[in-house]
Amino acid sequence: MSESSPSIVILGGGFGGLHTALRLSQFPWADDVRPNIVLVDQNSQFLFSPLLYELVTDELDAWEIAPAFSDLLANTSVQFEQDTVSAIDLAQQQIALGSGKTLNYDRLVLALGGETPLDIVPGAAEYAFPFRTLADAYRLKDKLRLLEASEWDAIRVAVVGAGPSGVELTCKLADRLGDRGRIRLIDRNDRLLKQSPKFNQTAAQKELDRRGVWVDLDTRIEQIGESEIVLLYKEQKDSIPVDLVLWTVGTAIAQPIRDLPVPHAADGRIRIDTTLQVSEHPTLFALGDLAEGLDAEGQVVPTTAQSALQQADNVAWNVWASLSGRSLLPFRYTSLGEILTLGTDTAALSGLGLTLDGPFAYLARRLIYLYRMPTFEHQMKVGFNWVVKPFLEALQPKP
Prior knowledge:
Blueprint: E1 7-11, H1 15-26, E2 36-41, H2 53-56, H3 62-65, H4 69-72, E3 78-82, E4 85-89, E5 94-97, E6 102-104, E7 107-110, H5 124-127, E8 128-130, H6 134-149, E9 155-160, H7 164-177, E10 181-186, H8 198-210, E11 214-216, E12 219-224, E13 228-233, E14 236-241, E15 244-247, H9 255-258, E16 270-271, E17 277-278, E18 281-286, E19 291-292, H10 305-324, E20 338-341, E21 347-351, E22 354-358, H11 359-371, H12 376-395
Parallel strand pairs: 1-2, 1-7, 2-3, 7-18, 8-15, 9-10, 9-15, 10-11, 16-19
Antiparallel strand pairs: 4-5, 5-6, 12-13, 13-14, 17-18, 20-21, 21-22
């Protein structure tokens, strides 16, 4: 490529960023506009986050859900930079990285995702465990091993947030801890999975009941301590002893994004047009957790993995179109429903006119996510392992 080739920089290697990069590498670029495509992420591995829960119960290995970017991008023209983002200069079209390196761009895609806010409640930053990253999962497993090795009869766990992440994590923990687990799921709303289909709400409540999980709704967290959590239900305060608090609530926007002189929503997300361009900035695109806007049909786009995947296809097309003299396309979101894992042997699926729960939903979830793995090569590796692993385990002598 010549030095005059346009440069496309993608910040963030989650679902939105990685799939944007992969799609851009597949477009039929003309020789005179063939770009340099750079993907930047602070981690060396992509995380297939919907399967992160399976690490807690050792159902999957880390390599299956967190392949290296270098492997995923090996057969593409995309360059990978493992680095953090310090600042973005829109006037100079330049990005300052944490290492001191700078990147110039002709098109910039913002896909940094979100962070877990732990400054909402006193004590959360010191004592609560977030569950969003691979490092979070490893930290949780280390803590669980310590608790399981103790002589305590009961392991007392509080999970804050009864959205999909909180419910899925609670069911996995209940299955891992078994009879020793004393798990409490806490949410300020009046029902669990408030934004989910009714079928999934009912299935989740059934599985939580079957596992003996306490569900505290209409309840707020007042404070978190080293061995207790203070709850507020209406006018009544209660101090509950705990050994572990898990925080699954909220999304915070990274500071370099909040600092950008572009239109922001009240929560710090960047406002985007229907073409997924940042308002008033045609060379700047945003998607995923950090973007806020309606699609071409006036729908609110949820901050989910399926939304990011759909947005990635649209962003890739529009970036290519903007450099190739083509028309940009407005984004249209299609809801494909919701899948929840509800333990090590069951799940709930609701969408596209289909509802299913139990072991068959668990299998369907696995197959759907296998299909969603980022590259065909990784799909084949993981799929082969899922077929062969049970046979190898069956051949091992019993202790």
